[in-house]
Every structure is written in C-alpha cells, then in structure tokens.
Amino acid sequence: MAVTSMSTPDSALAGPAAATAVGEPMPMAVSSRRRFLTVLRSPLGIGALAALMVVAVFAVFGPVLWGEAARQADLTQLSAKPSADHLLGTDAGGRDVLARVLTATRLSIVTAVLSAALGVFVGVVIGLLPTIAPRRLGRLVNSAIGVALAFPALLLAIVVSITLGVGATSVTLAIGLAMAPSYARLTQTLGASVTGRDFVAAARILGVSRARILVRHVLPNVRDPLIVNASIGAGTALVAATGLSFLGLGVQAPDYDWGRMLNESMGAIYVNPAPSLGLGAAIVFAGVTFALAGEVLARAFGLHRPSGRRRRRKTTGSTAASPVPQVAEDPVLRVRGLRVEAPRGDGWATPVRGVSFDIDRGEIVGIVGESGSGKSLTCMAVASLLEEPLHVTASSVQFDGTELVVRGKVPGRPRSKSLAQQLGTRLAFVFQDPSTSLNPALHVGTQVAEVGLLHGGLSRREARRRAVDRLAAVRLSDPARRARQYPHEFSGGMRQRATIAMGLMGEPALVIADEPTTALDVTVQREVLALLRRVNREHGTAVMFVSHDISLVSSFCTRVLVMYRGAIVESLSTEDLASGRAAHPYTRALVAAVPHMDAVPGTEFATITEDAEFPLDAVREGSV
Amino acid sequence: MSDLAFENVGVRYGHGPAAHQAVRGVSLHVPSGRTVGLVGESGSGKSTLARAVVGLHEAHTGRILVDGTDVVGARGSAAFVRRTVQLIFQDANSCLNPRMSIGASIEEALAVRGRSTRRDRAHRRGEVAALLEMVELDPARAGDLPMQLSGGQRQRVAIARALAAEPRVLLADEITSALDVSVQGTVLNLLMRVQRDLDLTVLFISHNLAVVRQLCDDVAVMKDGEVVEIGSATEVIDHPEHPYTRELVRAVPRIGTPLFGKGTTL
Amino acid sequence: MTTEPTVTLLTGTGAGPDSATGTFRGRGGRLGAFIVRRLVRLAYSVVTLVTVVFLMVRLIPGDPVRNALGINATAAVVEAQRESLGLNDPLWTQYLNFWKGLLTWDLGDSFSLHLPVTTIIEQRLPATLELAFLSLALVLLVSIPLGIVVAALTRGGRRPTVDLAYTSASGLFAVIPEFLMGVALVYFFAVQSHLLPVAGRTDPSSYVLPVLALSIAVAAAVSRIVRVEALTVFEQDYIRTARAKRMSRWRLYFRHALPNLVTSSLTVAGIVLGSLVAGTVLIETIFSWPGLGLTIVDAVRSKDFPLAQGIVIVYGLIVLVSNLLIDIVLVCLDPRSALKDT
Fold first, then answer.
1. Which residues of chain B have pLDDT under 70?
2. What is the pTM of this model?
3. CA distance A227 to A554
4. N or C: which end of chain B has fewer CB within 10 A?
5. Scanning every residue of chain C, which has its alpha carbon at the shortest distance from the alpha carbon of A427?
6. Do A541 and A510 meet the contact criterion of CB atoms below 8 Å apart?
7. Is the pLDDT of residue A614 over 70?
8. Residue B89 in domain
9. pLDDT single digits (tens) A122-153
10. Pick the CATH number of A416-548 from 3.40.720.10, 3.30.479.30, 3.40.30.80, 3.40.50.300
11. Does B95 touch chain A (CB under 8 A)?
12. Residue range A43-300, CATH number
C-alpha cells in the first residue's frame, strides 16, 4: 500500500511567480477563477468530476439501496459463481457479492476520507509550528518530523493497532496518525519556502504579528499544494485501510469493507475469482478517482502545466527582409529575416520579428536591448540552438560560409556530422549565468576537453592535455588541478573563464557572449572582458556581445545593434553612439536614461515613460 | 528627523569554525535627512548591514542606534523605534505577497502603524489611494495583484508600503538592480522626491557608482565586511583614495570611453 | 502509504552555495564530518524509535496482557503474567530494562510461539530483506531509464500522444496497491496458467511473483518522479551549454543529464525503500512468504506483543540504516549535498 500515492509528488511548487516565458515580459495574470472553470470543463476535469460523483453516490446511497440485499443469505447458493441473479456470485455465506461491494463503499470511503483529513490536519498543524515557533523549538519539531518520516507508515499503523486493538476506529486513527508526518514535512517545506521570501521579511519589519503573518502571508501561499496532496492522500488512505483490513487488522466482523471482503474472497480465488476481481475493480476505481481529482486540482491551481495541445501556429509571418544595416563582404555571420515565434497562452508570440545583420570577421559587435527585446533569442537562434516548441524561420543564416537554414527553418540541431563539427569548433558560446551554465556533476576539465573528444579527433588523454593547456590560456592558475575540480569550487569569474576555454578547444571564428558578465561584479567583469578582447586580438575571433547595458556595450564593442521589441532598430558605430549621433529615438532615449558618472549630483534621473512607444522601423546607418 | 548610526557593528553567519564574518566592526553615521550611499561588490556585507538594522540578522557585536536608541535585539519600546526604519528590497518579484492585492499590502502596513484603527473603510481606502498617488500609481489599481504589475510598478508599491509605516529612515537595498534602465530612473526619482518631501534619512545600497554619485550626499565603500573609504559622494567617486575604490571606479564602463584603451594590458 | 508528497527532490541541480575558493576544505574532512553528523542523527532516530514503540505499547489505554489472555483469564493470571513481564515496575525501570534487553539482543519470549523473539527474527529476517532489496533493485533498474527516456521523448511538449499514454498508464499502475497486484498475479499465473509458483520461498521462480507484485506500482510511481526530475534537468543551462558543443542526443542525456539525476533518484530510493519494506508485510501474507511480515501479522492477530514490538523495531532499524547508507553514497557522488544537510 505504501507507495501508491507517490504517483503525483510531481505536483511541485511551480510557485506563483514561476519563471516567465522566453524573455517575454510577465504575462497578465490569468484570472484564477477562469482557469478553474477551464480545467473543470476539460475532458480530464469532467472525467474526474463524474468519477467523484459515482463514488459519492455509492458511498451515500449504497447501504440504503443494497444493504438489505447484502444481508440476505441464500443458503442454496453458497460461494456460487456469477449468474444473472448474482452478477459477481455469492460469498461463503450465500450473500450477493455485488450488493456487498456496493454497500461496503461507504465504510471504505468514509474511513479513507476521515483518516486523510486527520492526517492532513495533524500534519499541517505540526508542519506550521516551525514557521511560527521560536527557532530552537522549530528545529526540534523539524528533526522529529524527520525521524517519524523514516518510519514506514503502515508499520506505524500496525503498532497503533497492537495497542488500540483492531477495528474501524483504530484503523482510521492509525492511518491518520501514520500519514501525518509526510504532510507535516510537506507543510514545513512549503512554509519554509514562503517564509524565506521578502514579503514575509517586509511584514516582519513592519511589525505584523506572527499569527497574522501565518494567516495572511503563509497560509494563502501554501494552501494549493496542500489541498492537492490531501486529495491524493485520500487515495493513499483508502489503499492503506483496505490493506490493513486485508491483513485482518482493520475492520472486523460483522462490519466489512473492501479489504476484509478481499481477504475472504482470496481463499476461494481458485474456484470463484469473480468477487476478487470485482473488489479489485472497486478499489482501483476509487483510487484512480482520488488521484484524478488531485491532478485536476493541481491543474486548476496552476501547479501543473497542462500538457494539452496548442493552437496550430499560423504561418503568417512574413520573412520580408528588413533593411540590412552595414553589409559585409565575407562576414562570419550573415542573418536575413530571422524570426522566432514562441507559444504563449493558446496563441503564438513573436519575440524576434525578422532581423537581419552581418558580423564581419574579427569584429566585436554589441547587441543591446532591454529585457524582452529578443536579444538572447536572436543569438540562440543564429547559433542553431533553439528547439521546439520555439519556431525559428529565416531566409538565410550563414555562419562561416555555411548556410544553416533548411527549408526556411533554422533547425535546433545540425543536420550533418560535418556541420556539427563546424559549429562545435568554429562557434563558441558564453552564457549569462556562470553558476548554472557548467554541469555541476562533471569535472571542469572533462567539460572543457569534450569538444576535442567530439570534434577534434583527439584521444581522451590528448583532449585532457589540451584542456589543461586551454585553461592555462585563459589564465587560470594551476590549471591541472583546476581541471580536476567541480564547477562549484570555482568563483563566478573563473567559471566564465572556463567556459571561454571550452570555446577555445576549437578555432572559433565567432564567440557569442550572451550577457556574460551580468552576474559578475564590475572588477571581475573587467577581467572577463579583457580575456574576450585578448581572444579577439590573438585569434581574430569575432565577438557577438549581448548586453542590456549600453554603456558597457559602447565601451567594449566597435559596433552596436540596438534591439527593441524583437526588431533591430539601429546599427551604429560606438563613436557615433558616444558623440550623440544616434538617429533612432529609442537609442537616444536609452542613452539618455543611463546614469552618467559626470551627471550633476542631486539632479533628477532621465526616464523613459512606461507606456512610451517607439517606431519599430530601423533607421539607416551612416548618415554622417 | 532621525539619524542612524552604526558603532563597531559585526554580523556573522553560522556558528563555530564554519562561521562566516559578513560584517566586521563597521562604524558609519547616516545623519538625519541625508542620503548615504553604500557601495561594494557582492559579498562585501552591505546588504547584511542593512538587514541587521531591521532585525533580519542580529549583530553580534556593536550597537545600531536609531535616534540614539540601540535597536540590536530590540524588545519593547526599542522595537517600536526600530519600526521607524523600513527596508525596500531588491527583488520586486518576491517582496509583495502574490496572493494579496497591492491595496491590501499597503493597508496592512497602515494597520500596524495604528492609523487605521478607526474602522472606517472609506478612510482607509483614502489613505491607500493617497499613498498610491504619491508613488505615481493609479489608485484604481489598488485591487490588482502584484502579478498584474510591471517590475517598476511593483517596486513603487513596495515604496508605498514602506511609506505607509511612516518611517523616518529608509534602507534601499539595490532597489533598481533588477529593473531595466528605462524604468530605473522613475523609481530613483521617486525615492529622491519622497526623501526630500518627507525629510527622510536614507541608506542607499547599490553597486552602481553612477547612480550613487548622482543620488547620494555621502558614500561609504565596503569590501570584505569592512568600510574602506568614506566621504562625500562626488569626492570619493571622482577622486578615490583607497586602492580598492580606485579599482572599482576604473572598472565602471562609460559611454565613449573604451574599456581597454591603447595603453591597457590585457 | 508513505505519501511523501515532498516536493523538493531536486538536489543535483541548481546553483548551490557559491563556495568559491576560500571556504573549500577538502573532500575527505567534510565527508568524515558528514558521516559523524549523520551517525549522531541515526542514534537520535533509533532512540526515538525505541522510545515510541516502548511508550505506545505501555501508555495507550488497554492492557496488552489482558488483550493477549482474553477476557476469560482471571485477574490473578493476568497479574502474574504482568509481573513476570515486568509490566508492574515503574515506567522508568521498564524503559531501562527494555534498552538493556535490546542491547543484549534479548527481547523476551513470544507469547504465541514460545520461542525467544530474537530467534524468530533471526530466522525470518533474511527472507524479508531479500524481497525488499530485490524489489528495490528492480524498481531502480526499470524506473530510472524509463523516466529518462519518456522525459527525453516528451520534453518541451513534444509527442503529446506518448505523453498521454505514459501518464495514464503509469498513473493507473501507480494507484494499484501491491496486494491487489499480488491478487491479480496469483489469478493470472496460478489460477489461469499455472506458470509460476504462488506460495512459499523455494526455487528462484518463486521469487518472481512476489517481487513483481511489490515493485510494479512503485516502479510506475518512481518513473514519474524521475521523468519530472529529468525534464527539469533538461531545462538547465548546462544542458544548453552541452548542446552548444553539438553532440549526439544519447551523449547529451546519458553523459550530461544522467549524473545530475543520480542524486535525486537515490533520494527517491531512500523514500521508496520504506514503502517497499512496509509493502512486504502484505506481499508476504499473500504469497505465504516466510518473512517478518507474515510473522508480525500473526503476532498482532494473536496479540503477541513482545514479538510484534521486536519486529517493529527491526523494521525501523532496516529503514534507518538503509537511509544512512544511501545518504553516504549520495555524498560520495555529490559532495555538495553534504553542505546542504545541516
């Protein structure tokens, strides 16, 4: 009986403030009531509701309708096989099995629901203690929960029944108490994640009382997953109670539930399997019902992303090429009409709308834009790294002379081995968050060496030696030792160096650096950028540098592409940008909004009004 | 009208040999009605220092004086004094309860101050509306959930909530680092305005030197839990003396100045 | 019934504390400290377990001796029995004696079998351990690859049909309790086809049905958890980094994703083991498997409380010690998990 309910601990806390979709601004809140109704009207919702109704109806009316029939013993029909009179046959006492199964619904379900309610109640009360009690007491409660959890609940229930004796009441108590620790742990985990958030800290600073924090701030934010798990818990309790009765430790004669009946019918399974199968069906049906109800609730609360289908993508997007700023002769990267579409709600959004640009060999080009402008998606797309459900189209993306577009699309993975090799060795990537972009379970050296192993035709040992050499090249001290360490033993700046070393395993023609220093301190930022600059000088590697920081971009790059709402609105040299020759109103607003080191102290900051709309049309470059 | 003084404050995390000394012997005076910037890199202890004032961390040495009252481990009336200090957090996503309307969040702060003990709903609503107006939000949005607001708007709600408690000292902990630069200015201007209008004492924590220079009267530079340089904001940032401050200032990117000019070694 | 709706199983991924350079103090020392800390917690858990079992039998209303002897026994007989079991001593003395007995491996005699409890346990324990650990091995061998493969097939909303089929099937299997699965297997393999033995522990074929009955639901449930964990891992930044190196999917999933799933899978194994041990009680009853489960059910039915309480303690010890071992393996695989455990 144990595990059954492990079925859905994946109802995870997708938290109310779950990450937003692909760099898009926070979507408007879907009214929770509407979501509830939508889920209830889905096939799953209707199914769960119907099943729940069936269970409820039998639980309420079963004994009324079939109680009499279940008591009547037909002494001419002892342990009879199924017949028209007795659809599931009769038991050893000549009583109709079907009537008894239906009558037993009430006791089985009531036991399950009551013990689940008891378990949830006790568990929630105990689990909330650590949130409101003084720290010491909280810790004590916590470890007590840990100990209780280690102990299998069924055995706990058996211990209780040793002393309470057997019977329906003690089963309910035993199972309820046995379930309490896992709910206590769930509540405590949820509670801890809420109390760690700033709004609780803010309430504490304001002097809001502990009780009020609990009621107004903690409970509303832990409620949904608790309800979902309570529903699943009813299924668990059903199985547990049935199991105990099956062992003869639960409901005793003359009462009967499904478990006790199953125990009785097991003996006769060789002669008459029908009762056992019927009971099995009843138990599974009720179990599935509770699990379904949990799933529906989870979706209704938005804890589960429904895996439903999306509306088909409309292929209206014109890949009509927008004006191409600064055409290069033999560019390392040539992009024409790149468009990225992403599913949003039940439709599609277009976070990148047909951008075109060239990057010359050895050039350092910055792409600047604010969150949601599509800059990160653009560089993932040109690197052929975006996969379904995103939809990437372009009329042409040429990297290092090779066309990446196949039938109008940029595939998420290279279509041939030679292309994989080219992308793997000639294109390097540095990602934003160094704390997550290296694999925590593999040695740094292994991760750096891999490209040599995959595409360089090197043996394991050669690849390893080259990796150490590359780590030295990015000026990590003691590279041989560093190669044997895990990423968590590195500081943020060192991790970014290691990522760059990874790119240097090949002969990169282009490094795409997506906000590589945003998570770093300014002094470390300077070091990492110096390294990128050195790679650029020594290997003639072009750099595509993506950042939200226009002053950083202008002080590091030679040319800047300005992105606004998925379009490149301007391309200009950093000299022009610095000397105020930006032509597009958005560029100018952006430059003005950056706090300057020589501003007059005490003056107001320049602002861009929140509802400002700028034209999406690009301005032509080079008017000066 | 309130000043904030740190006297030899030390804060540590953890116990025993694993303990980490986040703040070591910091003394700093934030005079009444002035804005003092606190700069430094991540892990320098600047946020910890601010959180120690409001009791989110406990200082294990030294005193933190609000108008002369030590608020370390504050109980009773000292706790009341401590409530005149409010902290505004960095992350606008997590500083508002997602299940409470922004109006209710502000109202809760009013209630704690005892201003809404008059059980007059209209009156309370009026106060919430006034606060929302003060932070340039439409009072009609009081019923909105935080999710329905943009990051900048949420940060302004957080300021309104802090103001509802009628603070005399505001601690602003990286309040614009999570925001786009286009939104940043609005929030900073708002902070500047309420500081002047209400004559607040402000400790402004940031890693953005340009912002600090423009916004603050004085600045303190922290490194590894210690204050290494302190002085008027323009003086320290334009003519840094401590080598660390110099390195910090040098690393700030500026439009039109190549980060690696001709002479720089890479 | 171990609901364990714990939500934060994901231990292998995420940022983790940035311990940078200075604070890192060598793996050996930390592992040692971790094991010491874990042993202390084990001791604490064992004391709690023994105390709870001790108190439950003695404090909850009702007289176990009266229960065992039935209402027809005279007061004098009951009293004599209580006296000989030491139940009339002060609670504190009883508690100390209980510990003394436990430490000298003497848990008294069984009421019903008239044998030392420890002898019975020694005879029956191996059968139960075999059943539990064979099932655990089967569960892990099936559910981890299954979860990863399904996650790989359905990530990012791909193949909705596979998703639906898998979710429904695993959901259904996961709610079928092991005793029903046992009954069903008995029906199909013994009643219908006589393919496999359904009772006793004799030749290897007699292991098949009990292990299957015990494992199927658990494997279905665990594969669902592994799938969710795998989907989370697939969305991590380091998988994107790996993809940028352009490797085969096989390498991506098994070289880069799998090591990050081991931690969470083992954590699940710890949880599951408790369930499997509990499940043996039912399975042993159905398949007449001569283990502790069969014995404890008889002991409870015949109100043989010395035997029942001894077996309960042994069950608890199995679970606690296995969890300790799993935690140590976890720390060896992923040193960061020692940091988190405080």
1. 1, 16-18, 113-119, 262-266
2. 0.82
3. 53
4. N
5. C244
6. yes
7. yes
8. no
9. 999 998 888 777 778 887 887 788 777 777 77
10. 3.40.50.300
11. yes
12. 1.10.3720.10
Q: Does residue A198 belong to the interface with chain C, where contact is any CB pair within 8 Å?
A: no
Place of tokens 């994946």: A10
What residue spans define the domains of chain A?
43-300, 416-548, 559-619
Nearest CA in chain A to C241: A437
ipTM, two decimals: 0.91
> Nearest by CB to C312, which of A155, A266, A307?
A155
The region, left, alpha or beta by phi > 0 then psi within -120 to 50, assigned to residue A354 is left
Report the gap between the CA of C139 and the closest CA in chain A (Å). Answer: 12
User: Do residue B65 and residue B171 come from a single domain?
Assistant: yes
CB contact under 8 A, B181 and A579: no
Looking at the structure, tell me whether residues B22 and B75 fall in a common domain.
Answer: yes
Same-domain status, B173 and B139: no
Same domain, B109 and B75: no
Domain enclosing residue B106, as ranges = 101-166
Domain boundary among B166, B194, B216: B166
Instruction: Kindly determine whether residue A276 and residue C183, on different chains, have CB atoms separated by under 8 Å.
Output: yes
All chains having 3 or more CB pairs closer than 8 angstroms to chain C: A
Distance from C-alpha of A368 to C-alpha of A587, rounded to nearest angstrom: 10
The answer to the question of residue B173 being in a domain is yes
Contacts of C246 in chain A (CB under 8 A): 413-414, 420-421, 423-424, 454-455
Whether B11 and B80 share a structural domain: yes
Q: Is residue B93 part of a domain?
A: no
Whether residue B117 is found in the same domain as residue B238: no
**DSSP secondary structure, A393-411, as one string:** E-SEEEETTEE--BTTB--
Q: Is B208 on the interface with A (CB under 8 A)?
A: yes
What are the pLDDT digits (tens) for B235-266? 999 999 999 999 999 888 888 788 887 666 66
Subunits with 3+ C-beta pairs closer than 8 A to A: B, C
The percent of residues above 90 in pLDDT, for chain A, comes to 31
Strand order in the sheet with A427-430: A427-430, A510-514, A542-547, A364-368, A559-564, A567-573
Chain C closest CA to A151's CA: distance in Å?
6
CATH code assigned at B197 = 3.40.50.300
Considering its fold, how many domains does chain B have in total?
Answer: 2
In 3D space, the residue among C311, C326, C289 whose CA is nearest the CA of residue C197 turns out to be C289
Residue C1 has pLDDT above 80, yes or no: no
Q: How far apart are CA A476 and CA A292, in angstroms?
A: 54
Q: Classify residue B96: in a domain, yes or no.
A: no
Strands A333-344 and A391-393: antiparallel
Rounded CA-CA distance A17/C279 in Å is 39
Chain B: touching chains (3 or more CB pairs < 8 Å): A
Residues of chain A in contact with residue B185, where contact means CB-CB under 8 angstroms, are 593, 595, 604-608
Q: Please tell me the distance in Å from A578's CA to the nearest CA on chain B.
A: 4
State whether A499 and C241 contact (CB < 8 Å). yes
Name the closest residue on chain C to residue A267, using Cα atoms.
Answer: C286
Same domain, B61 and B122: no
- Indicate if B237 and B196 belong to the same structural domain: yes
Query: Crossing angle for the helix pair A153-164 and C292-301, nearest 10 degrees?
Result: 20
Residue B257 Cα to chain centre, angstroms:
30
